[in-house]
Amino acid sequence: MNLNLWTSFIEIVNLHDCKDETYFKNIVAWLNRNTYYFSDDLLKRHRLDALLATDPAEYEVRSCGYSTLANWKGIEESGIKRMKLDTFLMLVSDDLWEMFPTKRQQCAHCDVDEMRYVVIRTEDQDREELALECIQCGDLEYWDGRELQANIQTIRPATKSDRLDLRLRFKR
After folding, report:
1. How far apart are CA 147 and CA 125, in angstroms?
2. What is the residue-level pLDDT of the chain in tens, covering all 172 positions?
3. Beta strands of 46-149 (E only): which ranges?
4. Any idea what DSSP says for residue 46?
5. Which of 170, 148, 156 has the alpha carbon at shortest distance from 120?
6. Residue 39 in 3-state DSSP?
7. Quick check: helix, strand or coil at residue 158?
8. CA distance 128 to 50
């Protein structure tokens, strides 16, 4: 991985304690400033394209916790030169997606009891719908519990306006 890219990233991480949306906004801004390092395919594979397409202020985010920062600092110490760009983007994506609000609801597939609010567009519908995604296995269902069996065309985190449109309260 490019050492200058890593250095600029870790500077952003070190500026924030991950307690609010500032960390999220600054990491998304950093990604936008450095998109020329990443192929569209890499951004899409790690679902970062959806985050870059929306104003970060539209998202409601929660603290990402101490373990995230400890992991980044551990990577720094182990030598960033060995890390592949694909792995790096996967970790960044995991960090950012972990910050989105969740709902206490058991996944029908793996029994984990936390689901993330997302907005999906299926191949057979010309509109977006609110859904829940398991934070562990990625299984999807409609927000009201109906089974989701359609082919997903796009998926993105639910925004504040999505929440207001449907009158939902996100667990913080």
Report:
1. 16
2. 888 898 898 888 887 766 667 888 899 999 999 999 999 999 999 999 988 988 888 888 887 765 566 677 777 666 666 788 998 899 899 888 888 888 888 888 888 888 998 998 888 777 788 899 998 888 898 887 788 877 888 889 998 888 777 656 554 4
3. 102-103, 115-122, 128-134, 140-142
4. T
5. 156
6. coil
7. coil
8. 14
